[in-house]
Design brief:
The chain is an alpha/beta fold. It is built from 9 helices and 9 strands. Helices cover about 30% and strands about 20% of the residues. Strands 1-2-3-5-4-6-7-8-9 form a 9-stranded mixed sheet, sandwiched between helices. The chain is globular, with a radius of gyration of 18 Å. Pfam families: Abhydrolase_1.
């Protein structure tokens, strides 16, 4: 969690900037429908070119904008910007510069998919007219995107394509199916008021209790539901935007079998699945993070995504 003053975030019409090497992020405040304040970053500075195709990059758990662009300006966001895209990076509630609100302990994944993502989409739509958006998600960022589309919260009228990297919710982390383990995890989360990902060396951001408890529920039961019983898969048959999904052959956190099953559950007419590994002609068997971060990803994974985006998206 990074902090800024309320005044700096008070008005979306008065954005601030952040330098990342040779790149600049323009930072906006976005108010959600449930009155939470998010931060949305856009690569570049005004005046922006309205003809650039829009790409929205959604981070996963324990993460923030730094997954997409480093302090020195390295990352997929910079790569896509250099290739003519209008790149936007939202930080979901409680991550990065998005503020920890009074309801932090009550936030759930349902809030992210029903409030955060639609609010971000609406904000971008208000500034880039007549541009459908391409959404790219890593890990749970991709799961969030699909859930938002399936639930009808993210309108397909405004989305031209989605790309998912290491995104699934059922397989891996089998220990979460054992009651003593989940009891210990939930007790720890309850006692600390958050999941201590930073303390455990799992990432740069802690997670709100409700979000982690919902994720644990998915792993334990295999059911893609909110804690209130909402079925996130109810609209998978109705998704019609093109889908690209990639899985790392050596990803032990979100294994390729789970990513493939998640991909297969989406009934879009145009779909592409790619396993990032030696058997598919890549130079290495990619893992969960290095599939999108690092020199190897920059040389052979990013170009695959950009080629697909340019071919599938109007």
């Amino acid at each position: 969690m990074e902090y800024t003053s309320d005044a700096a975030m008070a008005d979306a019409a008065e954005p601030t900037t952040e330098n990342c090497g040779d790149y600049t992020l323009t930072r906006y405040g976005v108010l959600t429908g449930d009155n939470e304040r998010l931060t949305l970053h856009r690569v570049g500075t005004p005046p922006f070119n309205a003809d650039r195709p829009v790409v929205v990059l959604v981070h996963g758990t324990y993460s923030n904008r730094r997954f997409w662009i480093s302090r020195s300006g390295k990352g997929l966001a910079a790569y896509l910007y250099d290739r003519g895209y209008d790149v936007w990076i939202p930080e979901t509630r409680g991550h990065g510069y998005s503020m920890e609100g009074r309801r932090y302990s009550e936030w759930t994944i349902r809030d992210v998919v029903s409030q955060d993502l639609p609010s971000v989409a609406g904000f971008i739509q208000g500034r880039v007219l007549n541009q459908r958006q391409r959404w790219v998600g890593h890990s749970y960022g991709g799961v969030y995107i699909v859930a938002a589309l399936s639930g009808g919260w993210l309108s397909q009228d405004n989305v031209s394509a989605i790309a998912l990297f290491g995104s699934q919710f059922q397989q891996g982390q089998r220990y979460l199916r054992f009651a003593p383990v989940t009891w210990l995890l939930r007790s720890t989360i309850s006692g600390l008021g958050r999941f201590p990902a930073r303390l455990l060396g799992m990432g740069g951001e802690d997670e709100p209790p409700g979000i982690m408890n919902e994720a644990i529920h998915w792993k334990k039961t295999g059911k893609w539901q909110s804690l209130q019983g909402d079925d996130y898969g109810q609209g998978l048959d109705d998704i019609r935007v093109p889908v690209f999904a990639a899985a790392g052959s050596a990803d032990g956190l979100d294994p390729p079998e789970g990513c493939r099953a998640f991909f297969d559950s989406i009934q879009a007419p145009s779909k592409t699945f790619c396993e990032l590994g030696r058997n598919a002609g890549f130079r290495k068997d990619y893992q969960h993070v290095d599939m999108l971060i690092g020199a190897d990803a920059a040389e052979e994974v990013w170009p695959e995504l950009e080629k697909w985006l340019s071919s599938e998206s109007p």
